[in-house]
Amino acid sequence: AIAARAIDVVKTYGSGDTQVRALDGVSADFVRGEFTAIMGPSGSGKSTLMHCLAGLDNATSGSVLIGDTELMSLSDKQMTMLRRDRIGFVFQAFNLVPTLTALENITLPLDIAGRKPDKEWLDTVIGRLGLLDRLSHRPGELSGGQQQRVACARALAARPEIIFGDEPTGNLDSRSSGEVLSILRASVDEFGQTVVIVTHDPRAAAHADRVVFLADGHIVDELRDPTAESVL
Ligand code: ADP
Ligand code: ADP
């Protein structure tokens, strides 16, 4: 089954002489239960592709599907609900609520949706991300790496169909990176979730099932079962 699909997606910014064609007809399928890393030079369109796939930005033309849902057909309200109910985001900008504890931040999306967490999964996520002894701390009392791991736990807690990460290990030391990557891997292997990350880090890409390479707004290559050496 397809978890997400881009069909001939074009994204331009600006107009006239200063127009930038960030995506120039990108088509890609993201199969359910697969972990994909998107790599490529700075400015090649990675973030733009991820934002279009995740419904954070509208494609200029082409279409994007999450499951069977065509994003262009949704109203703003339906889009907000789709993001809330079906998508998890692990972005570098943590966006944690400063007045809430780590645990309250992690369960906030579930609380808003009025859903009960799966206790076993929540414990697994918190344990594997090394956050057990940090749950009652507020973001201001946590290191950057701990805050990023709280944001990761928050994205995974509701067990969304598909998880998007923009440089999810970007600011992390190698131990924290390993924890984040292994929980993303576990969500795929143990629950059949779908993960798509943008990364510059060959060690992060090595955790993926597949790497898609972008250059100048095009997909130029694809590699299955990558290793840290083979993606360089
Ligand atoms: P990457 O993530 O691979 O670094 P981006 O998707 O961020 O690439 O950017 C692709 C191209 O689109 C770049 O030329 C970038 O400068 C341009 N771009 C991205 N976002 C905007 C924006 N909001 N306004 C104008 N140009 C943008
Ligand atoms: P990264 O390469 O880490 O993805 P960027 O510096 O390309 O980060 O982009 C950071 C943010 O700035 C993104 O939200 C992107 O859409 C925006 N952006 C990138 N390039 C431009 C640009 N030329 N003009 C306006 N906004 C941009």
UniProtKB/TrEMBL annotation:
Keyword Chaperone: no
One Pfam family named in its UniProt record: ABC_tran
Entries under Gene3D superfamilies matching the protein: P-loop containing nucleotide triphosphate hydrolases
GO molecular function ontology, one term from the record: transmembrane transporter activity
Organism lineage: Bacteria, Bacillati, Actinomycetota, Actinomycetes, Mycobacteriales
Keywords (A to Z) from UniProt: ATP-binding, Nucleotide-binding, Transport
Source organism of this protein record: Antrihabitans stalagmiti
Protein name: ABC transporter ATP-binding protein
Domain of life, source organism: Bacteria
Keyword Transport: yes
Cellular component annotations (GO), alphabetically ordered: membrane protein complex; plasma membrane
InterPro entries, sorted: AAA+_ATPase, ABC_transporter-like_ATP-bd, ABC_transpr_LolD-like, MacB-like_ATP-bd, P-loop_NTPase
Listed PANTHER family: ABC TRANSPORTER RELATED, IMPORT ATP-BINDING PROTEIN
Residues annotated as domain ABC transporter: 4-232
